[in-house]
Amino acid sequence: MSDFLPVRKAAAIAGGVRALAKELQVSPSVVTEWAKKNTPVPIKRCVQLEIYTKGVVTRKELRPDDWHEIWPELTGWP
Description:
By secondary structure, the chain is mainly α.
C-alpha cells in the first residue's frame, strides 16, 4: 500500500482521518483513498487543505505531478 504523506500530515493536524473528513465535508473513506494514493486529491480540496493546515501541507505537495499546470502562478514567474 502506498502512503501519501501530505494527506497523512493533514489528517494528523486535524486529529485524524475522521476529523479531516468532517472538516472537508467528505466521507472518511474518501480521505483514506487520498491517503492511500488510490485517487488524487481534487483541486478544490487541495486549496481547502492548504488553507486549513495554514500552509503546512501545500498544493504542490498534494498534486506533485500537475500543480504547475493548475496553479501556474506558484511557479515563481511574475
